[in-house]
């Protein structure tokens, strides 16, 4: 048997503190994934170019059916980088993405053609 004074000390350590000060500390650690999510958000970039609006995925369009399966046909920019379909079709991408997010006149024309062809292709049945 342990003397009562020692038991009191052991119990004090086992029982979580209930005063408001410690409660606040606990709340601060309530969302462990929050900081990670915030970092991802800061990494996002948007395509706000109005001349790209017609490329944007429409509500009734399926990204993988219309575009993703044609990604091999996706044009490259004049400096040899793959055009980022996600950025121009979905309007968002991340800074860490290595694909091209800026297009010159020629690149724009090529991508425009690609998008139009994908849309025509998506309307045909799969065989
Ligand atoms: Zn991208």
Write the layout of secondary structure elements.
Elements: H1 4-14, H2 20-28, H3 34-42, E1 44-46, H4 63-66, H5 85-90, E2 92-94, H6 105-123
Antiparallel strand pairs: 1-2
Describe the structure.
The protein is mostly helical. It is 46% helix and 5% strand. The chain has a two-stranded antiparallel ribbon with strand order 1-2. The longest helix is centred in the C-terminal third of the chain and has 19 residues, at 105-123. Residues 27-34 have low confidence and may be disordered. The structure holds zinc ion (ZN).
Question: Nutshell version of this structure?
Answer:
The chain has helices spanning 4-14, 20-28, 34-42, 63-66, 85-90, 105-123; strands at residues 44-46, 92-94. With 127 residues, it is mainly α. Residues 84, 86-87, 93, 97, 99, 101 line the site of zinc ion.
